[in-house]
């Protein structure tokens, strides 16, 4: 028994170890890798793939309605009370002028029939088959739209994580400097060489930075969870980002993108508007085709049996075969103007779709101009924020020296520190804006 228990213990230890390794798996991504991962695993991306498959099945569903259809029917009747007919009595040797009741047929009846039907001509079917191509195109374009939305969302989430991480690092560094200043100022005050206001001023600044640090730490966790959600992994999974904010922002500065020409046919919003036009066009054609006749053919084969008792499964039961070949021709003649009104409404919907397509083109051009302007502004503000940060650091450093030498007050030092902290956050935010605005421009250009 001992080897048996040792084997169980080994298996249990391996299972626990394997489970822990699985739970502790750490993901590591660059921005490009995180987008690629999200395009495969994001929940919306997965459903977009399913929509494509659904569209393909729907296409075949439409096509199959025009292919041969075979149905089978089995029927059984038990005439609990058989109908009675009256015949002249003289037919049976009775008195003329009187009638004799008689029952025709037998109490039990069973039938089995198979019918083959085939459309020969149906205008609505022809249009429906043509429309399936447009529906597949819409599903593909809708998937592309979903992928672009995922790309934008992941980029923003990735940048927000980097922003939160950089904020934590900067606040920790600022807090370290403040602790040193506060310690030195308190010692000076305790030795009677300074005033209490200086200590209070630094304490106010420290408390503010401590709160900002706590909030940045919380945001760091939340933004990482949002990124995990966008990529389609467990929100609590440990994820490591391989890029830093400054390097990524530098990589995203590409003024050559401003010269890229817009190819309207590549823009996904234009393609979706075009799909709407195609859909409305086929709806109009289908409305018109309802005025055309429809022709179907059918052939069936069946067998019937009759008995006084239920014995249809007996080998000696007689079955009587029958078969029919026929055609159904349906010709619309008068619908009290219903078809005309339906066609007119479909025509109006088509004209509205054409107007919406024109509007979509103008909106895309406007969106392109806005995206270019916002991208240029983001780059300019990034350069300005970088210069402002250098100036704020220089001013804060000078005030640190002056304060140490007694040439500046604690209030002046606090102003310089607050200005530095604002410049730091402005610089971080400007880098995120460069990353996001470039992504928005690329999506418009479908680059």
TrEMBL record:
Residues 343-370 form a coiled coil. Residues 1-19 form the signal peptide. Its main location: membrane. This is TolC family protein. The keyword Transmembrane applies. Transmembrane segments: none annotated. GO terms for molecular function: efflux transmembrane transporter activity; porin activity. The keyword Transmembrane applies. Belongs to the outer membrane factor (OMF) (TC 1.B.17) family. GO terms for cellular component: cell outer membrane; efflux pump complex. Keywords: Cell outer membrane, Coiled coil, Membrane, Signal, Transmembrane, Transmembrane beta strand, Transport. It comes from Pricia antarctica. It is found in: Cell outer membrane.
């Amino acid at each position: 028994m001992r080897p048996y228990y040792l084997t169980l213990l080994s298996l249990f230890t391996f299972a626990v170890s394997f489970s822990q390794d699985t739970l502790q798996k750490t993901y590591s991504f660059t921005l490009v890798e995180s987008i690629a991962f999200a395009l495969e695993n994001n929940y919306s991306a997965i459903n977009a793939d399913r929509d494509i498959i659904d569209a393909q099945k729907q296409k075949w569903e439409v096509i199959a309605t025009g292919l041969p259809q075979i149905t089978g029917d089995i029927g059984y009747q038990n005439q609990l009370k058989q109908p009675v007919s009256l015949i002249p009595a003289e037919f049976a040797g009775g008195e003329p002028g009187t009638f004799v009741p008689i029952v025709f047929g037998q109490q039990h009846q069973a039938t089995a029939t198979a019918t083959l039907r085939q459309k020969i001509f149906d205008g609505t079917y022809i249009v429906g088959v043509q429309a399936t191509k447009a529906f597949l195109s819409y599903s593909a374009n809708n998937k592309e739209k979903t992928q672009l939305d995922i790309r934008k969302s992941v980029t923003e989430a990735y940048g927000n994580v980097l922003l939160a991480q950089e904020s934590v690092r900067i606040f920790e560094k600022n807090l370290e400097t403040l602790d040193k200043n506060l310690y030195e100022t308190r010692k000076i005050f305790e030795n009677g060489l300074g005033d209490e206001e200086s200590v209070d001023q630094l304490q106010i600044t420290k408390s503010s930075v401590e709160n900002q640090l706590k909030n940045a730490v919380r945001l760091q966790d939340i933004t990482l969870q949002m990124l995990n959600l966008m990529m389609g992994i467990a929100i609590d999974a440990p994820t490591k980002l391989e890029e830093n904010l400054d390097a990524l922002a530098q990589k995203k500065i590409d003024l050559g993108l401003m010269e890229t020409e817009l190819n309207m046919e590549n823009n996904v919003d234009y393609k979706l508007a075009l799909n709407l036009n195609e859909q409305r066009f086929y709806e109009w054609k289908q409305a018109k085709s309802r005025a055309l006749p429809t022709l179907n053919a059918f052939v069936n084969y069946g067998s019937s049996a009759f008995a006084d008792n239920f014995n249809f499964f007996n080998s000696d039961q007689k079955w009587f075969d029958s078969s029919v070949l026929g055609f159904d021709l349906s010709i619309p003649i008068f619908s009290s103007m219903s078809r005309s009104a339906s066609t007119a409404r479909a025509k109006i919907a088509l004209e509205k779709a054409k107007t919406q397509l024109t509007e979509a083109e103008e909106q895309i051009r406007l969106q392109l101009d806005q995206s270019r302007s916002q991208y240029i502004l983001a780059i300019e503000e990034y350069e300005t924020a970088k210069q402002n940060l250098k100036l704020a650091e220089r001013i804060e450093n000078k005030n640190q020296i002056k304060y140490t030498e007694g040439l500046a007050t604690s209030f002046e030092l606090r102003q310089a520190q607050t200005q530095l902290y604002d410049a730091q956050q402005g610089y971080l935010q400007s880098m995120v804006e460069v990353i996001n605005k470039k992504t928005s421009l690329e999506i418009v250009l479908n680059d």
